[in-house]
Design brief:
Elements (H helix, E strand, L loop, with lengths): L1 E5 L7 E4 L1 E2 L6 E11 L1 H7 L9 E2 L4 E8 L11 E4 L9 H4 L21 E3 L2 E5 L9 E5 L3 E4 L5 H21 L7 E5 L3 H12 L4 E6 L2 H9 L4 E4 L5 H9 L3 E6 L4 H9 L1 E9 L21 E4 L7 H13 L9 E5 L4 H9 L5 E5 L2
Parallel strand pairs: 5-9, 12-13, 12-15, 13-14, 15-16, 16-17, 18-19
Antiparallel strand pairs: 1-2, 1-5, 3-8, 4-6, 4-10, 4-19, 6-7, 7-11, 8-9
Helix pairs in contact: 3-4, 3-8
This protein binds zinc ion (ZN) (2 copies).
The site of one zinc ion (ZN) has 6 residues, from helix 3.
Length: 360
Amino acid sequence: MKAAVLREVGRPLEVEDVQIDNPGPREVLIRTGASGVCHSDLHFYEGKYAIQMPVIMGHEAAGTVEAVGSQVSYVKPGDHVITCLSVFCGHCERCLSGRPVLCDRTDVVRSESEPPKLSQGGTAITQFANISSFAEQMLVHEHALVKVREDVPFELLALIGCGVTTGLGAALNTAKVEPGSTVAVIGCGGVGLSAIQGAILAGALRVIAIDSVENKLTMAREFGATDVIDASSGDVVRRIRELTGGGVDYSFEAIGLKETAEQAFDMLRNGGTATIIGMIPQGVKIELDGPSFLREKRIQGSSMGSNRFRVDMPRYIEFYLQGRLKLEEMVTKRIKLEDINTAFEDIQQANVARSVITFN
Ligand SMILES: [Zn+2]
Ligand SMILES: [Zn+2]
């Protein structure tokens, strides 16, 4: 099969022939229908996070089941599925206490002694996030996918596989935004726009979008933001305080920077909660105002929207079909696998909400 292989930090990906193994007992082989290009892919491409190379990136995908392992009964060939990097074992303490996103993941990946899932002429290629979706096929554990209805296009289902679930889930599951509350979202890419949509689904009265790129703020309004702040024109925290008369109940950071993470905390009203969604680079430390804790201000991380993806993703599809969740508007470019490097450049230049690779 064809896949886009990353061999070195910063070096353009190349589409090459790659061998994909047959499914193990609990694995599923999927024909990729579509894959979003997520900002997290770029972090590894740019070397902000380390990964063993060569690697096939991509982790936001949907497709059709082609073959299943001997012990798989959940899906059969022909089923439509969304993949999720939050593969869960189903029997560890985290899974059993209702937080499968934090699964200890002992036996859902192949061990060193087993053959690699992906290889080229006998050399192993790293599978990214247990998925590797910049490829015509994916080989994943049965607990890394959810079966979904078959009347929604793959390019929209793919978005639910990471960005939408991460943003919506941060508002609905991690922060549990309350009806009537005031929310600020810093960073209006695919995840930030999804956090805005999540806050609105939760009943937030006011959702303030913050970004320094004008067309992203325009999109934020279209996705339901009630107010927008251009971060390039002055002190964001001061303007949030003026706008809200003291600060917001919930803030979401969807960029992954020290400065904006600190702003997310500083813009809270007393008792407010800041949720960090963005991937803050390894080694970066965040500085917070100590006395704020006496006013019960909180800051927390959110992993993939604290998802229980087999429950959440089918619900998000229903929200979409009811007209309560925008997905089409999020796809700004449909591209072919060969155009993957252009998609990375677009993210670097803040051009798009989402490029989606479609496969035939
Ligand atoms: Zn992602
Ligand atoms: Zn587990």
